[in-house]
Design brief:
This protein has 5 helices and 2 strands, in the order αααββαα. It is mainly alpha-helical. The longest helix is centred in the last third of the chain and has 27 residues.
Length: 122
């Protein structure tokens, strides 16, 4: 993984884990790799991984089984989908609409542009 220098590495790793849960590569109640294993995988300091894990524990995405490891919380998939959907609406959609308005792109034209782009993915 190539890291973006403008975003703290631990947040990028946190997002990678979240995306794995969203895409169900890692399922609810599955164990995630150890901090040491993730540090080796990403070639970062274990403290960086620990920071990402701490955030995920705080957000209720992971839970800890003492002496066993970290696991994906039941309901984490749905929670992440909801959180990312809100973030998408509040950031990306509002930004897109604002940009369209500033460029004098009509609502109808914007919708057509979105539909055309969306249909490319099918």
């Amino acid at each position: 993984m190539k890291f973006d220098d403008s975003i703290p590495i631990y947040l990028q790793i946190k997002e990678e884990i979240e995306n794995a849960i969203i895409s169900e590569v890692i399922e609810e109640d599955d164990a995630i790799p150890s901090i040491r294993s993730l540090a080796q995988q990403y070639k970062v300091n274990p403290q960086t991984i620990s920071n990402a894990i701490t955030e995920l524990l705080h957000d209720g995405i992971l839970y800890k089984k003492r002496g066993i490891g970290m696991f994906v919380e039941t309901g984490a998939h749905k929670k992440l989908i909801n959180d990312k959907s809100k973030e998408f609406r509040n950031s990306d959609i509002k930004g897109l609409v604002s940009k369209a308005r500033s460029l004098d792109v009509s609502k109808g034209k914007l919708i057509k542009l979105i539909e055309k782009e969306y249909d490319k993915g099918e």
